[in-house]
Design a protein that fits this description.
Layout (H helix, E strand, L loop, with lengths): L1 H21 L1 E6 L4 H16 L3 E6 L6 H12 L6 E5 H9 L7 H7 L1 H4 L2 H7 E2 L2 E2 L1 E3 L3 E2 L2 E5 H6 L8 H13 L3 E3 L5 H14 L2 H9 L3 H4 L2 H14 L11 H9 L3 E5 L4 H7 L8 E5 L7 E4 L1 E5 L7 H11 L2 H11 L15 H16 L2 E3 L9 H15 L5 H15 L1
Parallel strand pairs: 1-2, 1-3, 9-10, 12-14
Antiparallel strand pairs: 3-13, 4-5, 6-13, 7-12, 8-10, 8-11
Helix pairs in contact: 2-15, 2-17, 4-7, 10-11, 10-13, 10-19, 13-20, 19-20
Bound molecules: beta-D-galactopyranose.
Length: 413
């Protein structure tokens, strides 16, 4: 009897162990700021409520540059995580290497094809197969303005470049830092996304999507760099290396007038208890109304041991649930990755993000973000980063930057 009990207890324990392995996901991501962590918590809790435990692999560093380096090391060591937060072309690169799993069954069962916009599907599918689960749609051509400072400046939202410059001059007179910025290549590139877009939809498309050498090397590109030089004159002395969320904090704490940043910045304002329209104002970078440079965070699903696949599929399914999409994106600052999620629970900035996205999609003015891996593969993106950052830091004149940009892109293609 005793022996029987021991054996039964042992096999129960073994079964429990197996079940636990099957119900665990190891997730690599770069969501470490206050707002990002709050959004990630919505996902963790959702999975926990479904009996799936979470092993966290955070790799700090906005935009995910560091996370992608750590991922490469993990996969090379034969130890791929279950799911990895990833952007655009990086997903396709991993798919090309044959490293990703297959979500076709769950996608078919849940009808993802009909509700996930094709702009996202381009990165969630490879060779006709689903390889990643999109969790949101962010966009980069936003600015986040301190409302009190804007009111002091007369309260008018700047409608074009000249009005933006006038507002920044006014912030300077108010004795605050006009532009809250963190000098990191991906942040410089995020501003460059918006500046290039503000010089025309065609210009953005030809430069960053088509990588047209004439456009990359033309007079408009010189003007884009000139505008970067102008914006550089409005940052504080300590901007170099600052994390993006600390730049958001400067606007939140009334130390700076505005930040140019994707709508993940809104997550920081919300986390700090700030309200859109009351404490801060969200608006598109002047001159880019009607256009959207988007990036979508997706969870790329890696090939894992068979016993881990059920939890992986359950995670993918949970991410695409409409209720989760609303709950998560309300906190994250992004728009849902599905077109059928009601905007009821979103604040005014969120409602605008959802509407702008739908409108841009219809009018053909929705473009992949260069700065966030949705216009080009990493090699080209990094080549552009390098030139943009050197020019922003005064190492290159606008003329030199234009010449270098053409050469760098050509070399990286
Ligand atoms: C973006 C990502 C966002 C946000 C941001 C800063 O690339 O899409 O979700 O995390 O980086 O870390």
């Amino acid at each position: 009897m005793r022996k029987f009990l021991t054996t039964t207890a042992m096999s129960l324990a073994l079964m429990a162990g197996a079940a636990q392995a099957a119900e665990n996901v190891e997730v690599l991501h770069w969501w470490t700021s206050g707002g990002e962590a709050a959004a990630l918590d919505v996902l963790k809790k959702d999975l926990e409520s479904k009996g799936i435990t979470w092993t966290d692999m955070p790799v700090a560093g906005g935009g995910g540059t560091e996370a992608m380096t750590v991922l490469r090391a993990r996969v090379t060591a034969g130890n791929a995580p279950t799911a990895v937060q990833m952007l655009g072309f990086d997903i396709l690169d991993w798919a090309k290497e044959g490293a990703l799993g297959n979500l076709d069954d769950v996608a078919a069962k849940e009808g993802w094809d009909k509700v996930i916009p094709t702009a996202l599907q381009q990165f969630s599918k490879y060779d006709g197969h689903w390889i990643a689960a999109p969790v949101n749609v962010h966009s980069t051509n936003w600015m986040w303005i301190n409302k009190a400072a804007l009111d002091k400046a007369g309260g008018k939202e700047p409608a074009n470049w000249d009005e933006l410059v006038a507002l920044l001059d006014n912030f300077k007179e108010q004795g605050i830092t006009p532009v809250a910025h963190g000098g990191q290549p991906w942040q410089d590139a995020t501003i460059f996304d918006a500046v290039v877009l503000s010089l025309g939809n065609d210009f953005y498309k030809k430069a960053f999507i088509d990588l047209d050498a004439e456009t990359l090397g033309g007079p408009q590109m010189k003007e884009a760099f000139d505008r970067m030089t102008k914006l550089r004159s409005y940052v504080d002395d300590n901007f170099s290396g600052r994390d993006w969320n600390l730049a958001s904090a400067m606007v939140i704490e009334d130390k700076a007038g505005l930040q140019f940043m994707g709508d993940w910045a809104k997550g920081e304002f919300l986390k700090a208890g700030k309200k859109p329209g009351t404490d801060f104002v969200c608006m598109r970078f002047p001159g880019t109304q009607g256009s959207v440079t988007f990036n979508s965070d997706q969870f790329a699903m890696f090939k894992v041991a068979d016993d881990k696949v059920p939890a992986q599929l359950a995670m993918a399914s949970a991410i695409e649930s409409p209720t989760f999409q609303s709950a998560f994106n309300v906190v994250k600052g992004s728009a849902p990755a599905r077109t059928d999620v009601p905007d009821t629970d979103f604040d005014d900035c969120g409602k605008k993000a959802i509407k702008d996205l739908a409108d841009a999609n219809t009018s053909g003015t929705l473009y992949g973000s260069m700065a966030h891996g949705h216009a080009n593969p990493a090699a080209v993106k990094n080549a552009i980063y390098d030139v943009v950052t050197r020019q922003f830091n005064g190492e290159l004149s606008s003329e030199e930057a234009v010449t270098e940009l053409v050469a760098a892109v050509e070399g990286a293609k």
